[in-house]
Write a structure and sequence with these properties.
Mean pLDDT: 78
Structural class: alpha/beta
Low-confidence stretches: 19-33, 302-339
Oligomer: single chain
Distance between the termini: 20 Å
Shape: globular
Strand order of the largest sheet: 1-2-3-5-4-6-7
Radius of gyration: 20 Å
Number of helices: 12
Largest sheet: 7 strands, mixed
Number of strands: 7
Order of helices and strands: HHHEHEEEHEHEHEHHHHH
Strand content: 15-25%
């Protein structure tokens, strides 16, 4: 997490210094916004960022002690990127120490990486923000009001998860800025988006939708570390039996997010063996279930490799030697692309 915090500081510093998207970046993003946004009623639009609950944080981790003046766990109003309905989403808002600059504190909407499938894996429910306290503290040091969403389906907001659904992620990130401004009167309309992994995908999406959905705010830029931009390689990897340990653990989350967007999808068609049986184990973010997951994956893969039978954590069934790995590119064995 210290490495992540350093990356976050560099990304935020670059954004503050000012940067201009290149033509290559614009061309890469063209297909990303191809899907038509859902119709959203005027009433739902007016409620965006509205505070449902706000509870002052009385206890936070030592990493935040030196840099946070005050903070809240919040539930705020946002919008589903799938059907345009109003949704409650939870998160945290922190204010840096010191006097606000002229014009107010800029707001940074930070997108955290994947934590787990269980609703309790919302970062706002943990004093250390599930390890993201260092990243938040680094951003506070730079003079940002920091808003970190749990994303729809995690934390107190409840509801169906929308893992890697870009419009929902973008809306959650942008509405977190609105919620922060409703709580922090010294906050300005200037805002940035930064994230890593799942949060990098969300920050990228927020950039794409800022001009339309982010009306009334002054968006200045975004930075994404290892965003999930192309998951098509997951199919070839699963079929050929070349999913890594990390990708095996990640597959249930990908399918859960996809099934909420495509209800006709039956995830049991794609999860077999240990991945199908241990739902609570694969969903956990802390505790004994999370520890057990690592052990089960390692022992299963070692045993299977020797036997030459089931590979990919039970995702693919077959005998003999595994197929050669698919060629790199188009998602490749790394799945996620960095930009």
């Amino acid at each position: 997490m210290r490495i992540l915090a350093a990356v976050v500081v560099c990304a935020a510093a670059v954004l503050q210094a000012g940067c201009t998207p290149t033509a290559a970046t614009d061309s890469l993003a063209t297909e990303f916004v191809d899907a038509v946004p859902p119709q959203v009623s005027g009433e739902v639009l007016r409620e965006r960022g509205g505070i449902v609950t706000a509870t002052p944080i009385r206890e936070w981790s030592a990493a935040l002690d030196a840099d946070a003046d005050r903070g809240w766990t919040v539930t705020y109003r946002s919008v589903s990127g799938v059907d345009g309905s109003a949704r409650d989403v939870s998160g945290v808002v922190f204010v840096p120490n010191g006097e606000a600059p002229a014009g107010g504190w800029p707001v940074l909407s930070y997108g955290h990486g994947a934590t787990g499938l269980d609703p309790s894996c919302g970062t706002s429910e943990h004093t250390d923000l599930l390890g993201y306290d260092l990243a938040v503290a680094s951003l506070l040091q730079l003079g940002f009001v920091v808003a970190m969403t749990d994303f729809q389906g995690w934390g107190a907001g409840g509801g169906a998860t929308a893992y890697l659904e870009p419009k929902t992620a973008a809306y959650n990130m942008i509405d977190a800025v609105r919620a922060a401004r409703a709580l922090v009167h010294e906050a300005s309309a200037i805002w940035y988006a930064v994230g890593a992994s799942e949060g990098g995908h969300a920050a990228w999406a927020a950039n794409e939708y800022a001009a339309t959905y982010g009306d009334g705010l002054d968006f200045r830029g975004s930075a994404s570390s290892a965003p999930m931009t192309d998951l098509t390689g997951m199919v070839a990897l699963a079929q050929s039996g070349w999913l890594s340990h990390e990708q095996q653990m990640w597959l249930p989350m990908v399918l859960a997010g996809l099934s909420n967007y495509r209800p006709e999808l039956d995830v049991r068609d794609y999860l077999h063996g240990a991945l199908e049986r241990g739902e609570s184990m694969w969903s956990a973010c802390t505790g004994p279930h999370a520890d057990q997951r690592e052990q089960v994956l390692e022992s299963l893969t070692r045993r299977v490799n020797v036997a030459g039978g089931v590979r990919g954590g039970g995702c693919v069934v077959g005998g003999g030697s595994p197929a050669p790995p698919p060629p790199r590119g188009g998602g490749g064995p790394g799945v996620a692309h960095s930009t």
